[in-house]
Specification:
heterodimer; A: 630 residues; alpha/beta; 7-stranded mixed β-sheet; 16 helices; 33 strands; B: 632 residues; Metallo-beta-lactamase, Chain A; Rossmann fold; 4 domains; nucleus (chain B); cytoplasm (chain B)
Chain lengths: 630, 632
């Protein structure tokens, strides 16, 4: 038993996140992504490495490198078990997948799944809310926590028996314009699997880059220029809309803000409904006006590309890798007053990357005529991933027994790994794709115990002693340090009887026949209250009174209830086998149970019992029948 | 453990209120509602139209002069039917749960809220001196409750303006001599059956009280776990009766309790009743009284709710089926509610249409959010089919916020609503209606926009269902003489008293229960599924539920009575579970006990209480960390 992780993707790389974790025999797949940088076999995780069936699939957020392979996995490979993702992920993922498919088809690339597969796949998804305890089967429990990376991003906690772990997915430890920071409860964990995109980077405050962004945009539109912001339709776009909308309101600007894709309009509708997944500031706006009901942000028509006057345009795809954003760029680039704003990292090889590195001065248009790039450009990093400080903060907060790094670049990951192992003393792994990591998990030994055990263990019971430096037992050396020992738990004794473990307080036991040769017998004890008025009534019926008469009544009662046993009335106590019962006069009896019967504790009489282990069943039966009948 | 039923409540508007004592040593208050139906003893308008012009002054002087005469008159009038003049003409006071004020607020450890209605009395409690309990409610219920409280305060303000500053020393109607003059029907409401409930009346809380109250509430999602003091693990599960309403499970080291409040198997708008999660509890407290009284009564009672008889027989068949038929059973539980509710709503809609076609207006003092949402969807469709141009107004200080809120809570909505959201449509169509200018939302009846768009006949949704507060009062005065107009009342108000101030009444009144009642076979089925060891029921169900059924006799049944304390037997097993960390277990020095198969060891470490479980963990103090060792 324990935890076994099989890395199917995002091992020492970024892309196609997919980890299969087996916790005490239950198998979960975390994320099921595709690698956008590959178009061959490497594009999808190698599902053939999984042996055995999965209990469930959990998707952390809607980015393609976390969900891209899901339709393929469910519809083509044929996984039919439960799939969990948060409400926003379930709502937005189909948009991403359909859009991806559309672009692929446009490029003439054949994908392994169809639009129908996406629909069929999404139907099988169970949406979950944050912090909800989801019971998968009998033993597996999962719970999602806020991850902040994009709308609906979640960190996932999974627990089977005593073993538990967290898979972070992508997360962000600093809040942005529309999302809050990642949030998780203190948990006792055997393993944390965390992303490590920025394993070594520490980022500046977001405020500075936001100010820079707004200033650049403001300067441009005031000067009559057009601003092009190439970005994907989901996520970053909404964050910048909120930022600009807010700025436009404050500065009383009237310049239109356009978005180009229909996808953005659809996404905005979802963002409006899924408000509760944004940050508190936006949630509070519900009373006045939904923050995603934009006043200045309107949809764009192709004919407006060369319309006079300044404007801001969000065009997809990001990084100027083609489509409308590149088309508009070609139109607007020659003018000095225009601005291209790249709000994020651009992958090498794209026009965006060249532009950002300042190497782009000329570009060939479709008709082979050259376009001079005269417009300004600004590249800002609005990353939604946590930086290395955030990763360390999260790990310090959770302090798990083991850490596994995924979703990062190999050299940086090994630096972070060393930092975690030396800095925090936590064992850390960074397996490659196809790698397997096995770790042991915490186990609790199950035992049973009694009330008085719990009571005595919870009340302080200190003993003070002086220990001598000389080693003499009776030292009067007052300079020796005073030692405090805590004895509450050590007064307890744990019994092991065949397979059953039982913890009791030492005073609940009596040691009988501790002499040599004789067998030692421990007695269990229990002292419980019954209502004395009932008992008196019963004795009254027989015309008796006093403690001894109570025992007579009980003896009668018991011989009725347990006809197959012999009940002996020994005067002061009753005996049935090794079971003894007497009226307990001792107010501070250690066996006394804490439950007070019914309403009037004052009219109670306590009955004290003891029995040997072999008569335990009988003893419990007698006690419960006495309690019920009186 | 002891259960005290403070109030057995009356329906959805006034849920029951209980106190559980000694739940692992803690005292838990279950719900803190407000008896808003008691507002009916007040009159929202002066008794005669003459008084309208000079208001309070003339009324007061009249009262002083004719005090004696009135007294005599009133006594003589005992035999005559109740009149609007008999009502109390004063600023509104609010009736809290009977005897709750007799409990020391500082002695309560936990407050659990099951629904919006169960929260309306909470600001009275949270502002009490010494109150320090932890309050748990679902996120949606807490947000809706805040809107309801704010709305109540806004509506109440109108009376404060009218009656001026509060009298010192309590209102005049609370004096004994005045109470003696009250008509018996009203007196019963004011002081209760046994005359002990006068102490529960209070002037409404303030906005600041509400703010303070909401700050003290810890909100949870469905199936989220909260752990009180490490000992009690609390979890809310959807009850299906309204957005955010829930049943609670309370799990401690010795006790597993499920508290079932008003629950509906299949709801049109809220998430379905999650009863599967309540299984496996020792004790089930079932505080829901919403049963259809007797089967034969149903059919004669309401023509619109006749039940297909084969449906019932199939239900009972499932009841006798094996435990394994969980799924089938579940489906049968879900199916019938929907049919009933649909028929009822259709009937209401047809009545609304009739009135509108006859040129009358319709007033719907909504109470349940679900009904408002459903009618807002059904009525426009019907109007469209008739090509009738009848505007629909929603008038309330919180209406805009309330409607906006309903469209941003897919996590609390029913499956079909969630599907709408996933396919990119708004969950509730009122957004479209507002955009198409078929539905108009106003914050107050005197808002200028309302006056400019006003058009009759119209259909108006407005608070308050007690007919003593809010825009409804003004609307009823306007249309009470119009025989074509229609008022739709919910169950829970006594129409005889509620309508008194508006008499003589020409307009039609339709009173109906919107809550689909749970029929008894269903309850049997459900209890069979839950399989508690002990079931605690309100005593009114004693005759109604038959536990002689062999499938149901596996648990013992206790009945509680309002105002009485019932002690609940402790669980039969005297043992507790203990988990020992493996690190410790490995260190144990086992000793044999002479007898071959028994071993024992001394324990060490630290005993902690976490998530309702005892755990023995490696402690900080142990002999190894002996300070003298350092000196060696």
């Amino acid at each position: 038993m324990g935890i076994e992780c099989l890395v199917l993707g995002a091992g020492q790389e970024i892309g196609k996140s997919c980890v299969v974790v087996t916790i005490n025999g239950k198998r979960i797949m975390f994320d099921c992504g595709m690698h956008l940088g590959h178009s061959d076999e490497e594009r999808y995780p190698d599902f053939s490495l999984i042996n055995g069936s999965l209990d469930c699939v959990v998707i952390t957020h809607f980015h393609l490198d976390h969900i891209g392979a899901l339709p393929y996995f469910t519809e083509v490979i044929g996984y039919s078990g439960p799939i969990y993702m948060t409400y926003p992920t379930k709502a937005l993922a189909p948009l991403m997948l359909v859009d991806f498919l559309r672009i692929s088809v446009g490029r003439g690339v054949e994908e392994k799944f169809t639009a129908d597969d996406i629909t069929a796949c999404m139907k099988k998804v169970t949406p979950i809310d944050l912090k909800q305890n989801i019971q998968v089967g009998k033993d597996l429990q999962i719970r999602a926590y806020y991850a902040g990376h994009v709308l609906g991003a979640a960190m996932v906690y999974a627990k089977v028996g005593d073993a538990s772990m967290v898979y972070t997915g992508d997360y962000n430890m600093t809040p942005d314009r529309h999302l809050g920071a990642a949030q998780i409860d203190p948990l006792e964990l055997d393993l944390v699997i965390t992303e490590s995109t920025y394993a070594t980077t520490v980022r500046d405050s977001k405020h500075a880059s936001e100010r820079k962004f707004l200033k650049a945009v403001h300067d441009c539109v005031v000067a009559g220029g057009k601003v092009l912001i190439p970005t994907f339709a989901l996520g970053r776009a909404q964050e910048l809309f909120i930022l600009l909308e807010d700025y436009w309101e404050r500065m009383n600007l009237k310049v239109p803000i356009y978005f180009s894709s229909g996808l953005t309009r659809q996404a905005n509708i979802y963002y409006k409904t899924l408000m509760s997944w944004t940050n508190q500031k936006i949630k509070d706006t519900i009373a006045l006006q939904n923050a995603f009901n934009f006043k200045h942000v309107v949809s764009f028509d192709r004919s407006q590309i060369n319309a006079p006057g300044s404007c801001v345009l969000f065009a997809s795809p990001g990084m100027l890798s083609g489509g409308l954003s590149l088309e508009v760029f070609k139109q607007w680039a020659p003018s000095k007053v225009n601005l291209v704003m790249l709000p994020g990292h651009c992958v090498a090889g794209t026009i965006g990357h060249k532009l950002a590195s300042g190497k782009l001065t000329k570009l060939y248009a479709d008709n082979n005529s050259q376009i001079e790039i005269r417009c300004k450009n600004v590249n800002l990093s609005f990353s939604a991933h946590t930086d290395s400080k955030g990763i360390m903060d999260l790990l310090k907060f959770l302090s798990p027994k083991h850490v596994m790094l995924v979703h990062g670049e190999k050299p940086r990951m090994s630096i972070l790994k060393k930092k975690i192992e030396s800095g925090m003393g936590i064992k850390c792994f960074d397996p490659p794709n196809g790698g397997v990591v096995k770790i042991p998990s915490a186990v609790h030994v199950k035992a049973q115990t009694t009330d008085s055990f719990a009571k005595s263990c919870q009340s302080p019971n200190f003993s003070l002693s002086r220990c001598s430096t000389s080693g003499a037992v009776l030292s009067t050396d007052l300079t020796s340090p005073l030692m405090v020992s805590e004895e509450r738990v050590s007064e307890a004794i744990l019994f092991m009887d065949r397979s059953k473990a039982r913890g009791v307080h030492k005073e609940e036991l009596e040691l009988i026949g501790s002499g040599e040769g004789k067998s030692q017998v421990f007695l269990y004890g229990h002292c419980f209250p019954i209502r004395s008025d009932n008992l008196t009534k019963a004795t009254g019926r027989l015309g008796l009174s006093g403690n001894r008469s109570w025992l007579k009544v009980l003896a009668l009662e018991l011989s009725h209830l347990f006809p197959q046993t012999d009940v002996h009335n020994m005067g002061d106590f009753l005996q049935v086998g090794s079971f003894q019962l007497s009226v307990c006069p001792n107010q501070s009896c250690t066996r006394r149970s804490s439950d007070v019967p019914g309403d009037h504790a004052t009219t109670c009489t306590y009955l004290c019992c003891s029995w040997c282990m072999e008569d335990e069943k009988l003893a419990l039966a007698i006690i419960s029948s006495v309690r019920n009948s009186l | 453990m002891k259960l005290t039923c403070l109030s057995s409540g009356s329906g959805y508007q006034f849920p029951p209120c209980h106190i559980l004592e000694d739940v692992c040593g803690f005292r838990i208050l279950l719900d803190c509602p407000l008896d808003l139906s008691a507002l009916s003893v007040f009159s929202p308008v002066p008794p005669d139209n003459d008084f309208v012009s000079d208001g309070k002054a003339s009324y007061d002087s009249a009262r002083d002069c004719f005090d004696k005469e009135q007294e005599i008159q009133k006594r003589q009038k005992i035999e005559t039917p109740l009149h609007g003049k008999d009502l109390i003409h004063d600023e509104l006071w609010y009736k809290t749960v009977k005897n709750l004020h007799l409990w020391d607020p500082s002695s309560i450890d936990v407050v659990l809220i099951s629904s919006v209605m169960g929260m309306l009395g909470l600001p009275f409690l949270t502002r009490a001196e010494g109150f320090s309990a932890k309050i748990y409610a679902t996120d949606a219920a807490a947000r809706l409750a805040r809107l309801m409280m704010e709305d109540l305060i806004a509506m109440n303000m109108e009376y404060q303006y009218f009656y001026g500053p509060r009298e010192s020393g309590g209102p005049h109607w609370m004096r004994w001599e005045e109470l003696e003059l009250l008509r018996p029907e009203l007196k019963k409401v004011v002081v209760g059956k046994d005359g002990t409930e006068l102490g529960g009346w209070l002037p409404l809380y303030s906005s600041a009280d509400v703010m303070d109250c909401m700050r003290k509430v810890q909100t949870l999602k469905y199936a989220e776990t909260a752990c009180y003091n490490g000992t009690l693990v609390l979890q809310p599960f959807s009850s299906g009766s309204e957005i955010g309403s829930c049943n609670w499970t309370i799990d401690g080291p010795k006790r597993n309790i499920a508290w079932l409040s008003c629950s509906i198997f299949a709801s049109a708008h809220a998430m379905n009743f999650d009863y599967g999660a309540l299984r496996g509890r020792d004790l089930v407290l079932y505080s829901d009284k919403q049963f259809l009284p007797l089967m034969d009564e149903v059919q004669s009672n309401d023509a619109s709710s006749t039940i297909p008889s084969n449906d019932l027989s199939s239900l009972s068949r499932y009841c006798s089926a094996d435990k394994d038929d969980w799924k089938e059973l579940t489906e049968s539980l879900l199916s019938t509610d929907e049919i009933l509710e649909k028929e009822k709503m259709d009937f209401i809609c047809s009545c609304i249409l009739q009135s509108v076609q006859a040129g009358g207006s319709v007033v719907i003092p909504y109470n349940r959010l679900g009904i408002l949402l459903q009618l807002l969807e059904m009525i426009p469709v019907l109007l469209e089919s008739l090509a009738a141009d009848v505007p629909i107004y929603v008038i309330s200080s919180m209406a805009a916020e309330l409607l906006a809120f309903t469209n941003v809570i897919p996590e609390w909505a029913s499956k079909p609503r969630q599907e709408k959201m996933f396919s990119g449509e708004p969950m509730f169509s009122h957004v479209d209606l507002v955009n198409k200018r078929k539905l108009h939302v106003f914050s107050a009846i005197h808002s200028p926009e309302l006056l400019t768009t006003w058009q009759e006949p119209c259909i108006i949704f407005a608070p308050h269902w007690s007919l003593r507060l809010g825009p409804v009062v003004h609307l009823l005065r306007r249309w009470s003489g119009d025989e074509n107009s229609l008022l739709i009342l919910e169950d829970g108000v006594d129409p005889d008293i509620a309508l008194l101030p508006f008499k003589p009444l020409e307009m039609k009144v339709l009173q109906c229960s919107f809550l689909p009642e749970r029929r008894l076979p269903k309850v049997d089925c459900m209890l069979k599924l839950l399989q508690p060891k002990i079931l605690v029921l309100p005593d009114d169900l004693k005759e109604k539920l038959d536990f002689s059924n062999p499938s149901l006799d596996s648990f013992s049944v206790l009945y509680y009575t309002e105002g009485e304390t019932l002690s609940l037997p402790s669980s039969p097993e005297g043992t507790l579970d203990l988990e020992i960390a493996s690190v410790l277990a490995e260190r144990f020095a086992w000793q044999n006990l002479g007898r071959q198969d028994v071993m024992y060891t001394r324990l060490e470490g630290e005993l902690v209480m976490e998530q309702g479980k005892f755990r023995l963990l490696p402690g900080i103090t142990s002999a190894d960390s002996h300070p003298s060792k350092n000196k060696e």
